[in-house]
Amino acid sequence: MRSTLLSSRIGLGLSPTPRGGLALLPLGAALGPAGLNILSLRVVNSLDPALWVALAALGVLAGLGLDFRRPREARLLAAASLEAGVTILFVAAAVLAGLARFAPSESSVWIGVMFGISAAVSAATITEPRAPAAARIGELNDVLPIVLGGLALAAIHPAGLPRGLPLVAQSTVIAFLIALAARLLVERTSEVSEQHVFVAGALLLLGGAAAYLSMSALWVGFAGGLTWRLTGGAALERIERDLRYVQHPLIVLLLLVCGARLEISGPVLGIAALYIAFRVAGKVAGSWLARRTLVPDLPPDMGRRLIAPGVIALAFALNVLQARADWNGAHVLLAVAAIGSVASELLAVVAYPPRGAR
Known about the structure:
mainly alpha; globular; Na+/H+ antiporter like fold
């Protein structure tokens, strides 16, 4: 049987990635401007176009993972969203209290929500094949954070929410059209090389559209992936195949850049402590509520299983930094999300150790 260390999911709950992948964060910090300066600010900035595509691809994978043909999918999605929502509330309230002390000028409801969004995503530590509902909760609890993340970026748009909301609608329509066009092209060609080009082109367009509008690339990618999932057809399997090829390299790129962009200070550590503590509390409370109200067959220790972080937390924080580099809170959000991810992974090992160690 494969090692439990390799069965943890730090990505989207869609494909196994070793826990050691989070070691890329300190590696990126060591190579970044504060370390050896190999990943200098100039180099990191030059990677921005690729990062927009990486974020869009992660959103696509999340959209493709939402399949209502599965048994009880709607109820499991509701339970996962309930758990994520409780975590967002817990973390948002705690971080807003911390910001009111450390940085009063940065305190606003939407800023607190953004910290909650980054905390809500989990990668369920599920090793038992008899726990399909529990595994599915861990895979679906990124949907609400991605949707709210699109609204949060619209809320901090320089022109304000009234201008940002139409941009969310525009980006959704653009994502739908790009995905539909790519599906038709992939479906009508039998050449594998051409299929690769069309899928890659669709990802470039999705990421480029989000960058042009300064909107959430995760949301744009999610809308595109959901379009592919709902329209189905012969193209769906080919698109999923190509996305599996690029998923891991994109996650590596994202983690290295996140590490290179880290700016850690005393206030950041204080907010990170609140973030970690209330994230765990939110996971436990949200899982308990979901079990009591929606999915009674969830395991009693579901909250502990969801402590392990998902890479969407870092992806969203990086997306905020790219879209609103002029907002000082973006650097704090990324640093707190990074510290919280590493600490949460360590807590997950303690709270839900490998089966052989229990």
